[in-house]
Amino acid sequence: MAFVTTKDGTDIFYKDWGPRDAQPIHFHHGWPLSADDWDNQMLFFLREGFRVVAHDRRGHGRSGQVSDGHDMDHYAADASAVAEHLDLRNAIHIGHSTGGGEVARYVAQYGQPQGRVARAALVSAVPPLMLRTDSNPDGAPIAVFDGFRAALAANRAQFFRDVPAGPFYGYNRPGAQPSQGVIDNWWRQGMMGSARAHYEGIKAFSETDQTADLKAIAVPTLVMQGDDDQVVPYRTAAMMQDKLLRNSQLIIYPGFSHGMLTVNADVLNADLLAFIRG
Question: DSSP readout, 66-90?
Protein backbone atom coordinates (compact mmCIF):
# COMPACT_ATOMS: atom_id res chain seq x y z
CA MET A 1 0.00 0.00 0.00
CA ALA A 2 1.30 3.44 -0.95
CA PHE A 3 1.22 6.44 1.40
CA VAL A 4 2.50 9.99 1.52
CA THR A 5 3.01 11.71 4.87
CA THR A 6 1.78 15.29 5.07
CA LYS A 7 3.49 18.16 6.87
CA ASP A 8 1.35 17.56 9.97
CA GLY A 9 2.26 13.86 10.02
CA THR A 10 -0.90 12.38 8.51
CA ASP A 11 -0.50 9.31 6.30
CA ILE A 12 -2.54 9.64 3.10
CA PHE A 13 -3.19 6.47 1.12
CA TYR A 14 -3.18 6.67 -2.68
CA LYS A 15 -3.50 4.51 -5.78
CA ASP A 16 -1.32 5.24 -8.80
CA TRP A 17 -1.96 3.14 -11.91
CA GLY A 18 -0.70 3.36 -15.47
CA PRO A 19 2.27 4.71 -17.42
CA ARG A 20 4.25 7.34 -15.53
CA ASP A 21 4.70 9.41 -18.68
CA ALA A 22 0.96 9.47 -19.51
CA GLN A 23 -1.27 12.44 -18.71
CA PRO A 24 -2.49 12.02 -15.12
CA ILE A 25 -6.08 12.15 -13.92
CA HIS A 26 -6.42 12.67 -10.17
CA PHE A 27 -9.76 11.66 -8.64
CA HIS A 28 -11.18 13.11 -5.40
CA HIS A 29 -13.92 11.15 -3.62
CA GLY A 30 -17.05 12.24 -1.78
CA TRP A 31 -18.14 11.97 1.85
CA PRO A 32 -17.81 9.49 3.61
CA LEU A 33 -16.26 7.26 0.97
CA SER A 34 -12.76 6.44 -0.31
CA ALA A 35 -10.68 6.23 -3.47
CA ASP A 36 -12.53 2.99 -4.24
CA ASP A 37 -15.57 5.01 -5.28
CA TRP A 38 -13.66 5.86 -8.47
CA ASP A 39 -12.73 2.29 -9.43
CA ASN A 40 -14.98 2.29 -12.51
CA GLN A 41 -13.50 5.55 -13.80
CA MET A 42 -9.93 4.55 -12.97
CA LEU A 43 -10.23 1.33 -14.96
CA PHE A 44 -11.95 3.14 -17.85
CA PHE A 45 -9.36 5.90 -18.16
CA LEU A 46 -6.49 3.46 -17.63
CA ARG A 47 -7.72 1.61 -20.72
CA GLU A 48 -7.78 4.96 -22.57
CA GLY A 49 -4.06 5.41 -21.91
CA PHE A 50 -4.07 7.77 -18.94
CA ARG A 51 -2.23 7.58 -15.63
CA VAL A 52 -4.90 7.44 -12.92
CA VAL A 53 -4.47 8.48 -9.29
CA ALA A 54 -6.89 8.56 -6.37
CA HIS A 55 -6.34 9.06 -2.66
CA ASP A 56 -8.30 8.50 0.53
CA ARG A 57 -9.06 11.76 2.31
CA ARG A 58 -7.65 12.02 5.85
CA GLY A 59 -9.81 10.01 8.24
CA HIS A 60 -11.38 8.13 5.32
CA GLY A 61 -10.60 4.71 3.89
CA ARG A 62 -7.03 3.64 4.53
CA SER A 63 -5.63 7.08 5.40
CA GLY A 64 -4.67 8.00 8.95
CA GLN A 65 -7.56 8.39 11.38
CA VAL A 66 -6.26 11.60 12.89
CA SER A 67 -8.23 13.75 15.30
CA ASP A 68 -7.77 17.11 13.56
CA GLY A 69 -7.74 18.74 10.16
CA HIS A 70 -11.15 17.67 8.89
CA ASP A 71 -11.75 20.82 6.88
CA MET A 72 -11.42 21.97 3.28
CA ASP A 73 -8.05 23.63 3.83
CA HIS A 74 -6.47 20.40 5.05
CA TYR A 75 -8.27 18.35 2.40
CA ALA A 76 -6.74 20.51 -0.35
CA ALA A 77 -3.30 20.51 1.28
CA ASP A 78 -3.39 16.71 1.53
CA ALA A 79 -4.35 16.44 -2.14
CA SER A 80 -1.43 18.71 -2.97
CA ALA A 81 0.89 16.49 -0.93
CA VAL A 82 -0.09 13.55 -3.16
CA ALA A 83 0.30 15.56 -6.37
CA GLU A 84 3.69 16.90 -5.31
CA HIS A 85 4.92 13.50 -4.11
CA LEU A 86 4.02 11.94 -7.47
CA ASP A 87 5.05 15.11 -9.36
CA LEU A 88 1.77 15.18 -11.27
CA ARG A 89 1.83 17.78 -14.05
CA ASN A 90 -0.61 18.72 -16.80
CA ALA A 91 -3.15 16.88 -14.65
CA ILE A 92 -6.92 16.69 -14.80
CA HIS A 93 -8.55 16.86 -11.36
CA ILE A 94 -12.02 15.36 -11.01
CA GLY A 95 -14.01 15.61 -7.79
CA HIS A 96 -17.37 14.22 -6.72
CA SER A 97 -19.52 15.92 -4.07
CA THR A 98 -17.20 16.89 -1.18
CA GLY A 99 -14.36 15.93 -3.51
CA GLY A 100 -15.57 18.68 -5.83
CA GLY A 101 -14.99 21.18 -3.04
CA GLU A 102 -11.57 19.67 -2.49
CA VAL A 103 -10.77 20.07 -6.19
CA ALA A 104 -11.92 23.70 -6.23
CA ARG A 105 -9.72 24.63 -3.28
CA TYR A 106 -6.78 22.55 -4.51
CA VAL A 107 -6.84 24.04 -8.00
CA ALA A 108 -7.24 27.61 -6.73
CA GLN A 109 -4.64 27.48 -3.96
CA TYR A 110 -2.12 24.84 -5.09
CA GLY A 111 -2.57 23.38 -8.54
CA GLN A 112 -2.72 26.59 -10.57
CA PRO A 113 -0.01 28.46 -8.63
CA GLN A 114 2.28 25.44 -9.03
CA GLY A 115 1.43 25.05 -12.73
CA ARG A 116 0.27 21.46 -12.29
CA VAL A 117 -3.35 21.57 -13.52
CA ALA A 118 -4.66 21.37 -17.07
CA ARG A 119 -8.39 20.92 -16.48
CA ALA A 120 -10.91 20.24 -13.74
CA ALA A 121 -14.29 18.55 -13.46
CA LEU A 122 -16.82 19.03 -10.67
CA VAL A 123 -19.34 16.17 -10.42
CA SER A 124 -22.43 16.67 -8.20
CA ALA A 125 -20.15 19.03 -6.30
CA VAL A 126 -20.86 20.95 -3.08
CA PRO A 127 -19.48 24.41 -4.06
CA PRO A 128 -20.13 27.22 -3.78
CA LEU A 129 -22.04 26.67 -0.50
CA MET A 130 -24.52 24.06 0.73
CA LEU A 131 -25.81 25.90 3.81
CA ARG A 132 -28.73 28.33 3.63
CA THR A 133 -27.66 31.84 4.56
CA ASP A 134 -28.95 35.34 3.90
CA SER A 135 -26.74 35.49 0.81
CA ASN A 136 -27.49 31.87 -0.19
CA PRO A 137 -31.27 31.50 0.27
CA ASP A 138 -31.44 28.37 -1.92
CA GLY A 139 -29.18 26.40 0.43
CA ALA A 140 -30.30 23.76 2.92
CA PRO A 141 -31.13 24.84 6.50
CA ILE A 142 -28.66 23.98 9.26
CA ALA A 143 -31.25 21.57 10.70
CA VAL A 144 -30.60 19.23 7.77
CA PHE A 145 -26.92 18.93 8.60
CA ASP A 146 -27.60 18.75 12.32
CA GLY A 147 -29.81 15.77 11.46
CA PHE A 148 -26.92 14.14 9.63
CA ARG A 149 -24.71 14.60 12.68
CA ALA A 150 -27.33 13.22 15.05
CA ALA A 151 -27.96 10.15 12.89
CA LEU A 152 -24.24 9.47 12.50
CA ALA A 153 -23.56 9.78 16.23
CA ALA A 154 -26.55 7.62 17.18
CA ASN A 155 -25.97 4.71 14.79
CA ARG A 156 -23.41 5.29 12.06
CA ALA A 157 -23.75 1.76 10.67
CA GLN A 158 -27.50 2.13 10.12
CA PHE A 159 -27.17 5.68 8.79
CA PHE A 160 -24.64 4.40 6.27
CA ARG A 161 -27.22 1.83 5.12
CA ASP A 162 -30.05 4.32 4.85
CA VAL A 163 -28.22 6.94 2.75
CA PRO A 164 -27.20 4.72 -0.20
CA ALA A 165 -30.42 2.70 -0.04
CA GLY A 166 -32.38 5.94 -0.33
CA PRO A 167 -31.51 9.39 -1.66
CA PHE A 168 -27.85 9.02 -2.65
CA TYR A 169 -28.54 6.85 -5.71
CA GLY A 170 -32.21 7.73 -6.09
CA TYR A 171 -33.21 4.27 -4.96
CA ASN A 172 -36.12 5.83 -3.05
CA ARG A 173 -37.76 6.95 -6.30
CA PRO A 174 -40.77 5.05 -7.72
CA GLY A 175 -39.66 2.35 -10.13
CA ALA A 176 -36.01 2.43 -9.04
CA GLN A 177 -34.15 -0.88 -9.10
CA PRO A 178 -31.66 -0.81 -6.22
CA SER A 179 -28.37 -2.66 -6.53
CA GLN A 180 -27.51 -4.36 -3.25
CA GLY A 181 -23.88 -4.50 -4.32
CA VAL A 182 -23.75 -0.73 -4.81
CA ILE A 183 -25.41 -0.17 -1.41
CA ASP A 184 -23.06 -2.61 0.33
CA ASN A 185 -19.99 -1.06 -1.31
CA TRP A 186 -21.02 2.42 -0.11
CA TRP A 187 -21.46 1.03 3.42
CA ARG A 188 -18.11 -0.79 3.25
CA GLN A 189 -16.23 2.34 2.22
CA GLY A 190 -17.93 4.48 4.83
CA MET A 191 -17.34 2.09 7.71
CA MET A 192 -13.62 1.88 6.87
CA GLY A 193 -13.22 5.50 7.92
CA SER A 194 -13.23 7.37 11.20
CA ALA A 195 -16.50 8.41 12.84
CA ARG A 196 -14.83 11.65 13.94
CA ALA A 197 -13.66 12.47 10.42
CA HIS A 198 -17.14 11.82 9.07
CA TYR A 199 -18.82 13.86 11.81
CA GLU A 200 -16.50 16.86 11.36
CA GLY A 201 -16.64 16.46 7.59
CA ILE A 202 -20.33 17.38 7.59
CA LYS A 203 -19.39 20.91 8.63
CA ALA A 204 -16.63 20.99 6.01
CA PHE A 205 -18.89 20.10 3.09
CA SER A 206 -21.92 22.11 4.21
CA GLU A 207 -20.56 25.34 5.69
CA THR A 208 -17.48 26.11 3.57
CA ASP A 209 -18.08 29.05 1.25
CA GLN A 210 -16.00 28.40 -1.87
CA THR A 211 -17.07 31.36 -3.94
CA ALA A 212 -13.53 32.75 -3.97
CA ASP A 213 -12.07 29.38 -4.99
CA LEU A 214 -14.39 29.14 -7.98
CA LYS A 215 -13.66 32.70 -9.08
CA ALA A 216 -9.95 31.96 -8.97
CA ILE A 217 -10.12 28.93 -11.26
CA ALA A 218 -8.95 29.77 -14.78
CA VAL A 219 -8.40 26.30 -16.30
CA PRO A 220 -11.21 24.75 -18.38
CA THR A 221 -13.74 23.26 -15.98
CA LEU A 222 -16.61 20.86 -16.60
CA VAL A 223 -19.59 20.99 -14.24
CA MET A 224 -21.77 17.85 -14.22
CA GLN A 225 -25.02 17.60 -12.28
CA GLY A 226 -28.13 15.44 -12.19
CA ASP A 227 -31.43 17.28 -11.92
CA ASP A 228 -32.78 14.63 -9.52
CA ASP A 229 -29.88 15.02 -7.10
CA GLN A 230 -31.43 14.82 -3.61
CA VAL A 231 -28.17 15.77 -1.87
CA VAL A 232 -26.79 18.77 -3.78
CA PRO A 233 -29.41 21.01 -5.44
CA TYR A 234 -28.75 21.09 -9.17
CA ARG A 235 -29.24 24.85 -9.25
CA THR A 236 -25.85 25.25 -7.59
CA ALA A 237 -24.24 23.82 -10.72
CA ALA A 238 -25.89 26.47 -12.88
CA MET A 239 -24.75 29.14 -10.42
CA MET A 240 -21.16 27.93 -10.67
CA GLN A 241 -21.22 27.88 -14.43
CA ASP A 242 -23.11 31.15 -14.96
CA LYS A 243 -21.69 33.44 -12.29
CA LEU A 244 -18.48 32.10 -10.78
CA LEU A 245 -16.39 29.99 -13.15
CA ARG A 246 -14.85 31.99 -15.97
CA ASN A 247 -13.95 29.10 -18.31
CA SER A 248 -16.52 26.35 -17.91
CA GLN A 249 -19.19 24.22 -19.46
CA LEU A 250 -22.22 22.65 -17.81
CA ILE A 251 -24.02 19.35 -18.37
CA ILE A 252 -27.32 18.75 -16.56
CA TYR A 253 -28.48 15.12 -16.69
CA PRO A 254 -32.27 14.64 -16.57
CA GLY A 255 -33.28 12.20 -13.83
CA PHE A 256 -29.75 11.45 -12.63
CA SER A 257 -29.03 11.12 -8.91
CA HIS A 258 -26.23 12.34 -6.66
CA GLY A 259 -24.44 9.02 -7.15
CA MET A 260 -24.57 9.20 -10.95
CA LEU A 261 -20.82 8.59 -11.31
CA THR A 262 -21.53 5.01 -10.19
CA VAL A 263 -24.98 4.16 -11.50
CA ASN A 264 -24.57 6.11 -14.76
CA ALA A 265 -20.85 5.60 -15.18
CA ASP A 266 -21.04 4.81 -18.90
CA VAL A 267 -22.63 8.19 -19.68
CA LEU A 268 -20.35 10.23 -17.42
CA ASN A 269 -17.18 8.46 -18.53
CA ALA A 270 -17.89 9.24 -22.17
CA ASP A 271 -18.57 12.91 -21.41
CA LEU A 272 -15.49 13.23 -19.22
CA LEU A 273 -13.34 11.69 -21.96
CA ALA A 274 -14.75 14.08 -24.55
CA PHE A 275 -14.03 17.02 -22.26
CA ILE A 276 -10.48 15.91 -21.50
CA ARG A 277 -9.67 15.31 -25.16
CA GLY A 278 -11.49 18.43 -26.31
Answer: -SS--SHHHHHHHHHHHHHHTT--S
**Tens of pLDDT, residue by residue, the chain (278 residues):** 899 999 999 999 999 999 999 999 999 999 999 999 999 999 999 999 999 999 999 999 999 999 999 999 999 999 999 999 999 999 999 999 999 999 999 999 999 999 999 999 999 999 999 999 998 888 899 999 999 999 999 999 999 999 999 999 999 999 999 999 999 999 999 999 999 999 999 999 999 999 999 999 999 999 999 999 999 987 778 778 888 999 999 999 999 999 999 999 999 999 999 999 99
Say which CATH superfamily domain 2-277 falls into.
Alpha/Beta hydrolase fold, catalytic domain (3.40.50.1820)
Task: Considering the candidates 34, 63, 80, 97, report the single residue annotated as catalytic.
Answer: 97
Question: 198 catalytic, yes or no?
Answer: no
Q: Long-range contacts: 1-5, Cβ < 8 Å, 24+?
A: 1/62, 3/63, 4/81, 4/82, 4/85, 5/81
User: Does the annotation mark 97 as catalytic?
Assistant: yes
One of 26, 60, 70, 258 is an active-site residue; which one?
A: 258
Examine the residue annotation and report whether 266 is marked as an active-site residue of this protein: no
Point out the catalytic residue in the list 124, 229, 248, 257.
229
The residue ranges of every structural domain in the chain are 2-277
| Cβ atoms of 232 and 126 closer than 8 Å | yes
pTM: 0.97
